Amino acid sequence: NIYFSDNLFRIIYNTLFGLSTSFWFAISVRFLLSCVNCLLGVIRAYASEVASEEYHALCLSVVSTSRGIGLIIGPAIGGYLAQLSIFSAELSYISLCYWGSHCMLVAA
């Protein structure tokens, strides 16, 4: 199942990103995460199938817009939560990545 494998890879690579100790390891893990992320194509195909012909452009623009908003708001929320941490900076970052992965698992 594409959805299950996509969530599994996102959980693994998101946790590895939280455990990264160098800049290049973090960049490599994010690159691998982008390579195995196949959910956006599935969502676009589903949106095209569900909507009528006259609303195709609107549906695809809503998908792209929501992804863009998530890419902006997600790191902002993560940065805010990292500042609120009572632990060390490294431990709080790992815990944020862990809880993000846990939320993805629950949402699946």
TrEMBL record:
Keyword Membrane recorded: yes
Keyword Transport: yes
UniProt topology in membrane: Multi-pass membrane protein
Gene Ontology cellular-component annotations: membrane
UniProt keywords, alphabetically: Membrane, Transmembrane, Transmembrane helix, Transport
Major site of localization recorded for this protein: membrane
Record localization: Membrane
The protein's name: Major facilitator superfamily (MFS) profile domain-containing protein
Organism: Brassica oleracea var. oleracea
